[in-house]
Amino acid sequence: VQLQASGGGLVEPGGSLRLSCAASGFTLRSYSMGWFLQAPGKGRELLAGIRWDNSPLYANSVKGRFTISRDNAKNSVYLQMNNLKHEDTGVYYCAATKVVYSGMWDDRQYNYWGQGTEVTVSS
């Protein structure tokens, strides 16, 4: 069982990045998925999640800027990040859980984690 995250990098404020997370060893379609940010010196926080029925949820800090999506045929989930800000800097992790709704905000509810991909927003 593996989640492989990719797509991070260095971007200027206002720029965009698209993160990808590919699953192997299990089928994503029956899981809710989340993208977490671990900023320097802080714990992991959920920025965006997508339930098994494709309904999304977003942290207030990214609403209107980030879009989460999934492609079950490719067993993958994505995070389109636009209008990036300095505070979006950190390591981004994708994760899978069987929990839905409010439980998705708790990182302890996630069963599988990717290795993380680093995003740096800097001029």
Note down, in words, how this protein is organized:
- With 123 residues, the chain is mostly beta strands.
- It has strands spanning 2-6, 9-11, 17-24, 32-38, 44-50, 56-58, 66-71, 76-81, 90-97, 112-113, 117-121.
- It contains no helices and eleven strands.
- Strands 2, 4, 5, 6, 9, 10 and 11 form a seven-stranded mixed β-sheet that branches. A four-stranded antiparallel β-sheet has the order 1-3-8-7, with no helix packed on it.
- It is globular.
- The model has no long low-confidence stretch (mean pLDDT 95).
Helix-strand sequence: EEEEEEEEEEE
- Beta strand count: 11
Q: What would the principal axes of the Cα set say about the shape? A: globular
CA(first)-CA(last) distance: 37 Å
Beta strand %: over 45%
Alpha-carbon Rg, integer? 13 Å
Question: What topology does this entry show?
Answer:
Elements: E1 2-6, E2 9-11, E3 17-24, E4 32-38, E5 44-50, E6 56-58, E7 66-71, E8 76-81, E9 90-97, E10 112-113, E11 117-121
Parallel strand pairs: 2-11
Antiparallel strand pairs: 1-3, 3-8, 4-5, 4-9, 5-6, 7-8, 9-10, 9-11
